[in-house]
Design goal:
By secondary structure, the protein is α/β, with parallel strands linked by helices. Helix content is 43%, strand content 16%. Helix 1 packs across helix 7 and helix 6 crosses helix 8. The longest helix is centred in the last third of the chain and has 26 residues.
Amino acid sequence: MLIVGGTGVIGSKLVEYFKGKNQDVKFTYLKNRLPIDDGYYLDIIEKTPTVEFITNVKPDIIIHTTAITNVDLCETNKNLADSVNVNGVRNIIDGAKISKSKIIYISTSAVFDGRKEENEEEDRVSPISYYGITKAKGEEYVKKSGLPYLILRIDQPYCWIEKWQHTNSVLRVLDTLGSQRILNEVVDWYNTPTYVPDFVRVVFELCDKAEGIFHTVGSDFINRYEWALKTARIFGLNQELIKPISSDKLNLPARRSNVKLANRKLFQKIGIKMNGVDEGLNDMIRIKKDSIHTQVEESLQDE
């Protein structure tokens, strides 16, 4: 198993989970190393080193998690978006063809325009942002590679993170309200948020059992304002600090699409029902409590 982007939020959780299942895992990093072995520096925009690395490792499965996911950055720096989200994928595939590896490609709801009430896996893609365009191109390269593949679409992933990793919508709520500051949250952006620990479990179940496209998102379709209110309520923070705003007041470069991804196919294939926001948030609390309990026990042992 080779996880490309193994120090990012999703990549690091995949590394941890697969190693916990006694899998033979190697991973790549660009800026940050994990404090474990089996990590290798790799810049996927460099074709020759990427192809040579994959050829030498000869992985049975490659999970490709690396991407520029900042929607507005992709809109304002299209060359950067292309270099990572398009050319980087192509370089990975070129190496995978030589090693005959299965490709697991992490994609996004942004490949759709949100005009349908609900999008299923085989619907035609129709992105409205440049980020969505690059991810749709990546999907197409994977599908045309001739390799066995999985394309797993997610939306607004959230979980606890390491200090060097990108934050997410839930942690922004916790940080802002925890500091007793006002949080302006958008009422007209809707998502099917993906709880990352659920996602990595699904990847493990699917990786050698299935091929094709799966929507591996949570079970709630919710706007950012309502999501923030739920987060505040479950974590016991002040909901009155959350103020609803419209996205047209933000003047952002990229358009967002309100896409509801149907995840029924996933349940039909492996019998896993993805958790909704309430379940994901409550599990984050459980993890936090377990972590505090472990730290206390370790402290007592040191004494």
